[in-house]
Specification:
Structural class of chain A: mainly alpha
Oligomer: heterodimer
CATH topology of the largest domain in chain B: Rossmann fold
Mean pLDDT of chain B: 86
CATH architecture of the largest domain in chain B: 3-Layer(aba) Sandwich
Shape of chain A: globular
Radius of gyration of chain B: 25 Å
Largest sheet of chain A: none
CATH architecture of the largest domain in chain A: Orthogonal Bundle
CATH class of the largest domain in chain B: Alpha Beta
Largest sheet of chain B: 7 strands, mixed
Helix content of chain B: 25-40%
CATH class of the largest domain in chain A: Mainly Alpha
Strand content of chain A: under 5%
Number of strands of chain A: 0
Helix content of chain A: over 70%
Chain lengths: ~350, ~500
């Protein structure tokens, strides 16, 4: 066997082993709550894959994960700990809702404006976090956290005050949008092909920006060493802001799609935790956009399959989240371990 | 207590920071550890105080071999270190910092601690207030706190790394008195790490000189200063080979710059440099030459004065504009400031070249291969820069520079380079003079400054002296002037054992 193949095989092994370890870890938790682990995993898989309708659901859940993952691959490349996607999704959904409620044009012009508004909302939120970082020296983790809280408060206020339905405000959200703001679905499924297309475009854009353009190379240089990048003449402040804006636009688009393609209205939990799940996706993808689609699909499948645990096994669906988190932790652990072993042997 | 370090080796990547260093410390003596920045002094002392592991070698205390896995183990064995930048907890009070050192009970006995602290402070006349936050103390007071903290921990060997940087003159007098008392009356072994000749001469009982990771000499004081200069800076690595180039018009003009950093203030610095001129900046590390050159590069904004390039006022403009105007800086720290660790050689070039937004990686690769060949870089386009040797990193940095530059600023152009690379670097620099490039450089190697400069600018503790024609200087004179004295003093009769 050639060395190259050997290396590829070890690389694969270092990916499979932590996933197995995560499954094992989740199995222990399942045993502790008295559930048969194999059946639980089987239920998740079946819940995600048993019918074309489920495949459509998985692909629908893939959209926000892929969008957030693509956006975050840009900020991570620049070495920014951007955790603000959750808030950016919410702002995108809010801006899109405003268009859906107030613009009375035919379907496609309305959707065009919905998309633009969603991207603008997310970009604005990202830009604010970036401005805080660059000009007020607020670390993006704290800035992003703060902006997430403000976004959550804002969406609740909007749903319970100016945008409350005629029959009274509830956690189930606003009135449904007029149908001219509904993203069309494929046949009888819940799958919005437009959203899938936009997400795929975002992934390709992120990939080409990072691999093929000077901007992307400069972002990567900043991520490796901000000071050295600055000394090379890279406009680090401008690039940081641009990365935040691009990530925000992609997350905002995800929010716009959640509102106009999935729920057809604005609900308080519109982000559905995709801002954080998307972060796990991009970490597991090794911060590389080319790996985001596959990882996002895997996470989407777990997300769609886990509610089955509640129906058939009286377990909480959040076990899916435990599995996702465990996989990320074990993969990171394995990467750290591998680096340590490599250092020791050299 | 007697501490012996034997054949200490320590490498950081390709840099051999300590290459077989021997050092013996005796109780009751102040031992000067002298050497330029990067000579390996701090590394050696961090190894002795448990902050850093060694690659090989041994440490003996009173003949018994010891190993320290942490600073805590070293201090338990009686070895403590005062770092160049104090490792304390600025927002906490002096007493809290003192207590943290040794009171490891859940609820510290503040009363007992305060009594102990004040007693030690009184013994050395340190005016320390236990309730003041450490961040409000001066550097000198923080040192005093560190010293009594180490004493309370039972330190028998106290290492001070460049302790006179940033403290006032009276504090320095008091520090020296304290160190003498600790050594000569209380029998401690003191290590005084410095690159300041005068201070070593004034304070130390014996001295060990390091250069490029090796001991170049060990002697009982007093030793004449020019002997110490010779041991510190050694013989030239640079070869005199500088074809004359006629100087052109004035390209760069710095007028009355006032520069402020957190350590140093330069009140007034002016310079005129003509096309094709090479100006060497001499001075002990931290005397102001780097601050001045970084201001010329646009990285530090002067508080007063103007910087003009071919008559164009660049004062206060962003760094990028200085670059675009044709001023380039090659930092001394090649791998952490000059190059981007983690990127390959090929990935560096589009950052500096005129490249379209969409990079043509094939074209770039061909270009980089040409540059690798032309600049004789030992690496491939896909080699990460951090795995290159220092010489090859410098070659990459030079290859990255645009062909026509107005001012090229080099910090320590040949530090850490072998003779071949050093000579090659200078060939490249001298060639650039033909395009009218002004070359400004700092160096710790006085021969290098004397060999290549048309004029020499001397800095001494924040003061910039007017440029002197290199022809009117000798290496010895230069050595005295960067140490702050103007004329050589008569040599004393002493014996030195030069290793």
């Amino acid at each position: 066997m050639s060395d190259e193949w050997k290396e590829k095989l070890t690389g694969l092994l270092w990916l499979i082993l932590p996933v197995l370890a995560a499954l094992f870890f989740t199995a222990i938790i399942l045993l502790l709550v008295g559930a048969p682990p194999l059946q639980a995993f089987w239920e998740i898989a079946r819940g995600a894959l048993e019918s074309p309708a489920k495949w459509a659901d998985v692909l629908t859940a893939w959209v926000p994960l892929a969008l957030v993952g693509a956006g975050m691959s840009l900020t991570f490349a620049a070495g920014l700990w951007n955790i603000g996607a959750e808030g950016q999704i919410i702002l995108g959904a809010i801006f899109a809702t405003w268009v859906a409620r107030n613009v009375h044009l035919p379907l496609w012009p309305t959707l065009f404006l919905v998309i633009l508004a969603g991207m603008a909302g997310g970009a604005l939120w990202g830009l604010l976090t970036g401005l805080l970082r660059v000009y007020a020296r607020v670390h993006e983790i704290f800035g992003g956290l703060g902006m997430n809280f403000i976004a959550t408060a804002l969406i609740i206020w909007l749903i319970f005050n100016p945008w409350k339905p005629a029959r009274g405000a509830t956690m189930s959200g606003t009135e449904p949008f007029p149908p001219n703001a509904w993203v069309p679905r494929l046949g009888h499924t819940r799958l919005p092909p437009l959203a899938v297309l936009l997400a795929a475009m975002a992934v390709v854009l992120a990939y080409y920006l990072l691999k093929g353009t000077r901007f992307g190379l400069e972002l990567r240089a900043m991520g490796k060493n901000m000071r050295a990048a600055f000394l090379q003449g890279i406009p680090t402040h401008r690039h940081m802001l641009t990365a935040f804006v691009l990530c925000g636009a992609m997350a905002g688009l995800a929010g716009a799609m959640q509102a106009t393609a999935v729920y057809h209205r604005l609900i308080p939990r519109i982000s559905g935790g995709y801002g954080y799940a998307g972060m796990l996706v991009v970490i597991l993808a090794g911060y590389r956009p080319e790996w985001v689609p596959a990882v996002a699909l895997f996470f989407a499948a777990i997300g769609v399959g886990s509610p089955r645990l509640e129906l058939n096994m009286q377990l909480d669906a959040s076990l899916g989240g435990v599995l996702e988190g465990a996989i990320v932790l074990f993969v990171l652990l394995a990467a750290g371990l591998r680096k340590r072993l490599a250092r020791r042997s050299s | 207590m007697r501490v012996e370090m034997r054949k200490i080796h320590k490498s950081f990547g390709p840099v051999h920071a300590n290459a077989g260093v021997d050092l013996t410390l005796e109780a009751g003596r102040i031992h000067g550890l002298l050497g330029e920045n990067g000579a390996g002094k701090t590394t050696l002392m961090k190894i002795l105080s448990g902050y850093q592991s060694m690659d090989s070698g041994e440490i003996l205390i009173d003949g018994r071999p010891v190993t320290f896995a942490s600073p805590a183990e070293a201090i338990r064995a009686g070895i403590g270190m005062l770092h160049q930048d104090p490792l304390d907890f600025p927002p906490m009070t002096a007493l809290d910092n003192f207590l943290l050192a040794f009171d490891d009970r859940l609820i510290p006995d503040r009363k007992r601690g305060e009594a102990m602290m004040m007693e030690l402070a009184r013994r050395f006349n340190f005016p320390l207030n236990p309730d003041v936050a450490v961040e409000r103390l001066t550097v000198g007071e923080r040192q005093q706190l560190e010293i009594i903290r180490l004493l309370a921990l039972g330190a028998e060997v106290i290492i001070l790394d460049e302790p006179t940087t940033g403290i006032s003159a009276p504090q320095k007098v008091q520090l020296f008195a304290t160190l003498r008392r600790l050594a000569h009356e209380e029998g401690k072994a003191i290590v005084f790490v410095s690159h300041k000749l005068e201070e070593v001469e004034e304070l130390c009982d014996e001295v060990t000189v390091l250069r490029r990771g090796k001991v170049t000499g060990h002697a009982q004081m007093p030793v004449p200063i020019d002997e110490l200069v010779r041991l510190m800076f050694g013989q030239s690595i640079a070869m005199p080979n500088k074809p004359p180039v006629p100087l052109g018009e004035v390209v760069l003009r710095a007028e009355g710059l006032r520069l402020v950093s957190h350590r140093l203030v330069i009140e007034e610095a002016s310079l005129e440099a003509r096309a094709g001129e090479v100006i060497g900046f001499a001075g002990m590390e931290g005397s102001g030459q780097s601050l001045f050159l970084r201001a010329i590069a646009g990285l530090i904004k002067p508080k007063r004065g103007r910087i003009l390039l071919e008559g164009r006022d660049l004062t206060g403009r962003p760094y990028r504009e200085f670059m675009q105007a044709g001023i380039s800086l090659l930092p001394a720290d090649r791998i952490d400031e000059g190059l981007v660790r983690g990127l390959t050689i090929a990935e560096h070039f589009p950052l500096r070249r005129e490249t379209p937004f969409f990079i043509d990686w094939e074209e770039n690769r061909r270009y980089v291969e040409k540059m690798i060949e032309f600049y004789n870089i030992k690496g491939r386009p896909e080699t990460p820069v951090e795995s290159l040797s220092g010489g090859n990193q410098q070659r990459v940095l030079l290859a990255l520079q645009p062909p026509k530059l107005k001012v090229l600023i080099m910090e320590h152009p040949t530090r850490g380079l072998d003779i071949g690379s050093a000579r090659w670097v200078w060939e490249q620099l001298l060639k650039r003079r033909e395009d009218g490039t002004v070359i400004l450089f700092t160096s710790a190697d006085l021969d290098e400054i004397m060999t290549y400069s048309d004029r020499v600018v001397i800095f001494f503790s924040g003061e910039m002296y007017p440029p002197v024609d290199a022809a009117e200087l000798t290496v010895e004179e230069l050595g005295y002037r960067i140490g702050g004295s103007l004329a050589p003093r008569p040599a004393q009769e002493v014996k030195t054992d030069v290793g």
